[in-house]
Amino acid sequence: MKSPADPVRDYLSAVEREASALPADRRQELLGDLAEHIEVTRAERPDAPIGAVLTELGDPRTIAATALAEAGGPAAAAPAGSGAGAGAPARRGKVHPLVPLLMLTLPFAVAAALTSIPVAQFSSTLFRVIGAVLLCTSVHWTSGQKIIGVLLTAVLPTTAITIWAMSSADSLGDTTADVANLATIALLAATATWLWRVRRA
Q: By the 8 A CB rule, do 49 and 94 touch?
């Protein structure tokens, strides 16, 4: 009977095989980072099935291709069938994970403080759209985390603002608007903090 550690060993072995073109020290560093991430995730979520933890990390071939691209390895090292996107994670990986989080939160706070300046509202929307795109194309989060992040930092606040502007709620006064803005800022800050905590190195 296999021990509970077998899936982790198999997963790390698969990554090591796929990343065989990496220099030995970089390959060991990658495996060490993955092993540490698995340990931390299992400590934080002891009830989570190990299969789900490994799925969140991603396919070993994709991880190896990303590491090879970041190390300046040949494009041919990318897994078959991955297409032009195989080299993309290296470009996306150059964007610090803090950048999309700041772009999704700070512009709204600035726009809320400068409601009388139309260009502030436009700039806020533009920056938040760019932040959402950077979040979706980042290598630091899983697909599920990206979906939740975009829903809570972009879709939900924008929908609420649109409904607010189109309804009679806008006539309830500045105090109600301030409370709504503070609640939205709190949601954005909480979501950004969560995304920062669950990001991958």
A: no
